[in-house]
Amino acid sequence: MRTPRWAPALFVGPAVLVMAAACLYPVLSAFQLAGYDWNMGTPWSSARWVGWDNFVSAFSNPRVWSSLWTTLLFAAVCVSAEMVLGIALALALEHPVRGMAFFRTLFILPMMIAPIAVGLAWRYMFDAQFGLINALLAVFGIGAKTWLADPTLAFIAIVVADVWQWTPFVFIMMIAALANVDSSVIEASRIDGARWWQQTFLVKLPMVMHVIAITLMMRLIDAFRVLEVIYVLTFGGPGDSTEILSLHIYKTAFVGQQLGVAAAISVLLLVVVALLSWGALRLSNPMKGEQR
After folding, report:
1. Cα–Cα distance between 244 and 263 in angstroms, integer?
2. Cα(first)–Cα(last) distance of the chain, in Å?
3. 273: nearest Cα among 221, 222, 213
4. Domain that holds residue 163
5. DSSP 64-91
6. Most-buried pick from 20, 144, 181, 229 (CB within 10 A)?
7. Cβ–Cβ under 8 Å, residues 266 and 245
8. Phi, then psi, of 49 in degrees rounded to 5
């Protein structure tokens, strides 16, 4: 007996409706708010329609574009480091070794800590007077650094915190992907004379390339939306050297009370994240070559 064509829609339909309601309502509300001048705490009836003025104000603000550049640089550096470290750790712990369960658990722990706690912990470690980082540098005869007061060092600090927290995500994805690689293919390459690096870079990694692609895009999307760690660690400072776009939106909305302008900037962020999501779907579909 053939399954009716409407059967999948019957099972998937309720989940799709719930997700559509949960996702579309905030998006439509952001588009609506972007057209109004409204202050939090006042009735919505007092909102004034301004049309495209909020978009003009947002996109003519140099701080918006500087925060977008900071976001792009932050995402590129963090995700590149996380991918390299996560894949390297997965390859190192792919085969059974003594204490492997302990190391896997240890590597996963940072991802399980709340972002606020991560920000506070690294803020204390980067403290100029009592921080652990400067104490370690002193052991090697290096003078104390004002990590969170220098623009370059503050950017390095937020990168270190993000890499520490989210490299385990890449590790989990890759260790699962490598576990599903057909061992007979690896054995055949070994018999053909392939060395370790050839087996790794010419056989294993190409076979899990779709997992690498989706992991890369998921981390890029998350890097564009990060907020809590940077909020606690530097609050975008010193100056605006670590002010990423999501933090600029927060400041515009809740510090400057320009909710309409913040909504307009959030539309820009939505477009960037949507493009990355589309790229993830395109790159991560292993059946795209067989689709008609």
Report:
1. 16
2. 26
3. 221
4. 62-255+272-290
5. HHHHHHHHHHHHHHHHHHHHHHHHHHHH
6. 229
7. no
8. -70, 125
**CATH number assigned to the domain comprising residue 130:** 1.10.3720.10
State both tokens at 104. 């896997």
Residue that the structure tokens 């003519």 belong to? 60
Q: Which of 27, 39, 226, 228 is nearest to 115 (CA)?
A: 228
**Rounded distance, CA 63 to CA 249, Å?**
11
For the record, the structure tokens of 3 come out as: 């399954």
| 262 in a structural domain | no
Residue type, 283: L
Does 152 reside within a domain? Answer: yes
Place of tokens 């070559």: 289
State how beta strands 48-49 and 36-37 pair. antiparallel
pLDDT for 290: 47
Average pLDDT score over residue span 182-193:
82
Q: How many residues does the chain have?
A: 292
* pLDDT tens track for 190-202: 888 878 778 888 8
User: Does any domain span residue 24?
Assistant: no
Q: Distance of CA 210 to CAs 124, 145, 219, 231, 280, Å?
A: 39, 41, 14, 33, 10
- What is the Cα 95 distance to its own chain's centre? 28
Per-residue pLDDT at 284: 61
**188 — pLDDT class (breaks 50, 70, 90):** confident
Q: How far apart are CA 175 and CA 212, in angstroms?
A: 11
Q: Looking at the 3D structure of the chain, how many domains does it have?
A: 1
Reported as a single tens digit per residue, the pLDDT across 246-266 is 999 999 998 888 889 999 999
- Alpha-carbon span 279 to 259, nearest angstrom: 30
Q: Which amino acid would we find at residue 282? A: R
Rounded Cα gap, residues 199 and 205, in angstroms? 9
Helix, strand and coil percent figures for the chain, each rounded to 5: 75, 0, 25
Residue with tokens 């099972």: 11
